[in-house]
């Protein structure tokens, strides 16, 4: 199974549902539709209404983050996995670099993953090295730490997806070389196999993916799909990625 996950970040108002309607109508008719899943993570404000709209449709709605407590608490503006599940979210991102840079620690991330899974949300756990770490050839060391400090064997690996997003690639138009990316993805799967007893959850790539460079990424069979930021805000750009992937 392949995944095309659109992360809208701070984008969208109720009428932006038009974008999803167009993506959904392509997805529902695509002859390849059973080979992949489409998930969109709009901002919190749209999760309930979009989930209702797409309840019996192919697209799934997810959240971009969740709080590290399970249900209710006195933390102002926090949204828990339980609250997300109750408004129809099926997935949540955890550990996006935007949130790590705003203070998410490994301990917080572990609780987010734990409580999201407990509430039957599938988790898209994001990892990735920054520019300096890449320059100092620390990528694999950093990725191993990010994975082993948060993921545990007891977590249900069928409900976990890992998204490898080099921070220097997010929103910059810069992408890793195919051989670099292949090597890194194989390494991530090796670490995941050691965490989860011999088999690995799906591993996605994220960072400036578009309809052109997907032609390069699709040759790397170890990559199980994509986390797409900028290009997911346009139905045309998002559909182009899927079209070119299966061309
Ligand atoms: C992201 O923010 O998760 C992302 C991958 O963004 P972009 O595709 O715009 O690089």
What would you note in describing this structure?
- The protein has 247 residues and is an alpha/beta fold.
- It has one domain (2-245): Aldolase class I (TIM Barrel), CATH 3.20.20.
- It has ten helices and eight strands.
- It has helices spanning 17-29, 44-53, 81-86, 97-100, 106-118, 131-135, 139-148, 178-195, 214-217, 235-246; strands at residues 2-7, 36-41, 60-63, 91-94, 122-127, 160-164, 202-206, 225-228.
- It has an eight-stranded parallel barrel, surrounded by four helices.
- Strand 3 (60-63), helix 3 and strand 4 (91-94) form a beta-alpha-beta unit.
- Phosphoenolpyruvate binds at residues 7, 165, 170-171, 206-209, 227-230.
What's the quick description here?
The chain is α/β, with parallel strands linked by helices. The protein has helices spanning 17-29, 44-53, 81-86, 97-100, 106-118, 131-135, 139-148, 178-195, 214-217, 235-246; strands at 2-7, 36-41, 60-63, 91-94, 122-127, 160-164, 202-206, 225-228.
